[in-house]
Amino acid sequence: MSADLTLILGSKTYSSWSLRPYLALRHAGLAFEEVVIPLRQTDSKARMLAHSPAGKVPALIHRTGPHRAAGGDITVWDSLAICEYAAELAPDARLWPQDAGARAHARSISAEMHSGFMDVRRNLFMDLGRTIDRPERLAKAASDITRIQAIWADCLDRYGGPFLFGAFTIADAMYAPVVTRFQTWKVPLSEASQAYVDAIEALPAMKDWRADAAKETVVLDMLLD
């Protein structure tokens, strides 16, 4: 499978959207090659367009069967779409909960993460290279921070932890970048939230991602107002 799947990623220090499918594919046990495109460089857009019609990362290229022979690779772009595709490729990995009600719940909070929490996105950008002490930024994202911790607390209580639905699912992949943002920006966390943060950070795939990020040489000057 390693020659068949290629995941196109942005800089691991900064690309929250790339982290999500990376964790899902790793959890599913799907071997894949990686192509990392540093963000915000003069050639970044052109390099992304070479892999995805959206011109963004992440993207998953799947070369298989008649598609390979015909030169018509399967391309999947968008984090959640790639996670869903991984769930189809590896159904035994149970990237969604088996119970229909829990599965609907997991999809709902994943979609909420995918399309919402704009104050967190605007004010608490992902940056694995430093910690930032800016309380005024936390204040601007306070409503989102409260809602995210409420989601975590409800899921952990309802399904028993250590992950949102007991075992690791796509929902955890979707919230993993928030775990890093909360640490970067020194967000005060409840005991339950901190336990969840610790569980995500203990994942071998998460440790590998951070190790790779630490080796990156392209440092972005992310402006703070």
From TrEMBL:
Q: What protein does this entry describe?
A: Glutathione S-transferase
Residues covered by the GST N-terminal domain: 5-94
The record ties this protein, via PANTHER family, to: MALEYLACETOACETATE ISOMERASE (PTHR42673:SF4)
Source organism: Nitrospirillum amazonense
What InterPro entries does the database record attribute to this sequence? Answer: Glutathione-S-Trfase_C_sf (IPR036282), Glutathione_S-Trfase (IPR040079), Glutathione_S-Trfase_N (IPR004045), Thioredoxin-like_sf (IPR036249)
Listed A to Z, the keywords are: Transferase
Which molecular function terms from Gene Ontology are attached? glutathione transferase activity; maleylacetoacetate isomerase activity
What CDD domains does the entry give?
Answer: GST_C_3, GST_N_1
GO biological process: one example: glutathione metabolic process
> Does the UniProt entry include the keyword Transferase?
yes
